[in-house]
Amino acid sequence: MQRPDLQRRTGNMRAASCVQSQSMGKTAWIWFVGCAAWIVDGAVQIHVHALVHARLAFTVALLFLVAGLFYRRQKQ
Q1: Alpha carbons within 13 A on the beta-carbon side of 25
Q2: Whole-angstrom Cα distance, residue 4 to residue 56?
Q3: Average pLDDT estimate for 24-53
Q4: Following CA atoms 19, 22, 26, 28 in sequence, which dihedral angle do they give, to the nearest 10 degrees?
């Protein structure tokens, strides 16, 4: 049988983990907005023929997309 203080701390850790998971899932949209912003930046840079900057922007957009998918999955 667990000690009451240990059980109380373990229960608080589980509750904190659940709250953190829910908050991460609710804020996943921020990553998708960032992805969209970087895609727009990349498109503008292609338009002005700055191909190195465009490649970097699309790479960062891909990173934001992967992060958004990861954080959205944390909600489940």
Answers
A1: 10
A2: 54
A3: 93
A4: 110
Confirm whether pTM is higher than 0.85.
no
Q: Phi and psi (nearest 5°) for 45?
A: -70, -35
Residues of the domain holding 55: 4-74
- The structural domain count of the chain equals 1
pLDDT digits (tens, 9 = 90+) for 1-35: 555 565 566 555 555 555 555 666 678 899 999 99
- Kindly provide the b/e burial profile for residues 7-31, where b requires at least 16 CB atoms within 10 angstroms of the residue's own CB: eeeeeeeeeeeeeeeeeeeeebeeb
pLDDT on residue 33: 96
Specify the residue for token string 């934001």. Answer: 64
| Sign of torsion over alpha carbons 57, 61, 67, 70 | negative
